[in-house]
């Protein structure tokens, strides 16, 4: 009996479509895995860069954040390479990570975004490294809310510089957030007034595998994920307990506990 040509053609067509479908699904799965790995790599790189920013800023003794200020900080937030561009009007955007003090040490890092703008006759561009220190409970409450506006929900001021900065400055009474910036472009300094800080939900999902509230992460209820050690180690190094004269002293608690 001769095979039915139409049936054979239909079989070959069905087989071809099945193979193409399997290949397509496999390719899509591989692409998805590659994108997930790339996203994971991006946030881990940002965490590592945040640690580098702290190391470099604190490494310049006469222009570093005072030890006393670091020791009093409730939260430390770092934005590596915040971009500020302006042609007629200005705008800024950056991504960073934050950690807050808890009863058991510094919390796991929480990804966040900061956006803001300013109007004026400005032409130029700038990339800066930004460090924000939350100094009191009001500022910490604003940070834990996962979304707040600098200047409205929490006051901000340029922080004092120099390891031996006078202890009698009034920075502690005037602002919930102290800001430090290191410019690599043509602008001098940065004004955070009006900037909005919010949890980066996408990068939170990448870092932790699911969405976790800002408050859950920053209150110490989450184990630090892979790749967060460099940033947390840098924060522990520079935000240790200090003596009355502003010099660093070794903590008496275990290495993984912050007093």
Describe this entry's structure for a reader.
The structure is a single chain. This protein is of the alpha+beta class and 259 residues long. It has one domain (55-238). The chain is built from seven helices and seven strands. It has helices at 5-59, 67-72, 137-144, 171-174, 201-208, 214-218, 229-238; strands spanning 75-102, 105-106, 110-134, 147-149, 156-158, 177-183, 196-199. Strands 1, 2, 3, 4, 5, 6 and 7 form a seven-stranded mixed sheet that branches. The radius of gyration is 24 Å and the shape is elongated.
Shape: elongated
Q: Please give the number of β-strands.
A: 7
Bin the strand percentage. Answer: 25-35%
**Which H/E pattern describes the elements?**
HHEEEHEEHEEHHH
Gap between N and C termini: 89 Å
Number of helices: 7
Mean residue pLDDT: 75
Short characterization:
With 259 residues, the protein is an alpha+beta fold. It contains seven helices and seven strands, in the order H-H-E-E-E-H-E-E-H-E-E-H-H-H.
Describe how the helices and strands are arranged.
Layout: H1 5-59, H2 67-72, E1 75-102, E2 105-106, E3 110-134, H3 137-144, E4 147-149, E5 156-158, H4 171-174, E6 177-183, E7 196-199, H5 201-208, H6 214-218, H7 229-238
Parallel strand pairs: 5-6
Antiparallel strand pairs: 1-2, 1-3, 3-6, 3-7, 4-7
Helix pairs in contact: 1-7
What key phrases describe this protein's structure?
single chain; 259 residues; alpha+beta; 37% helix; elongated; disordered C terminus
């Amino acid at each position: 009996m001769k095979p039915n040509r139409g049936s054979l053609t239909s079989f070959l067509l069905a087989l071809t479509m099945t193979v193409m479908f399997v290949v397509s699904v496999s390719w899509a799965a591989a692409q998805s895995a590659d994108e997930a790995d790339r996203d994971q790599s991006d946030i881990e790189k940002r965490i590592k860069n945040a640690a580098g920013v702290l190391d470099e800023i604190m490494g310049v003794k006469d222009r570093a954040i005072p030890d006393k200020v670091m020791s009093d900080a409730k939260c430390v937030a770092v934005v590596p390479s915040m971009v500020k561009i302006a042609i007629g009007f200005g705008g800024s955007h950056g991504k960073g990570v934050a950690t807050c003090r808890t009863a058991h040490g510094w919390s796991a890092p929480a990804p966040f975004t900061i956006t803001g703008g300013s109007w004026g006759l400005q032409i130029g561009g700038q990339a800066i490294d930004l460090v924000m220190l939350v100094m009191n409970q009001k500022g910490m409450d604003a940070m834990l809310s996962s979304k707040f506006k600098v200047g409205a929900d929490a006051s901000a001021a340029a922080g004092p510089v120099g390891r031996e900065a006078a202890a009698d400055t009034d920075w502690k009474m005037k602002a919930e957030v102290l800001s430090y910036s290191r410019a690599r472009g043509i602008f001098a300094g940065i004004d955070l007034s009006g900037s909005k800080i919010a949890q980066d939900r996408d990068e939170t999902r990448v870092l932790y595998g699911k969405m976790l509230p800002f408050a859950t992460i920053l209150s110490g209820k989450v184990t630090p994920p892979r790749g967060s050690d460099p940033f947390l180690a840098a924060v522990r190094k520079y935000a240790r307990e200090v003596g009355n004269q502003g010099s660093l002293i070794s903590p008496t608690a275990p290495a993984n506990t912050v007093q």
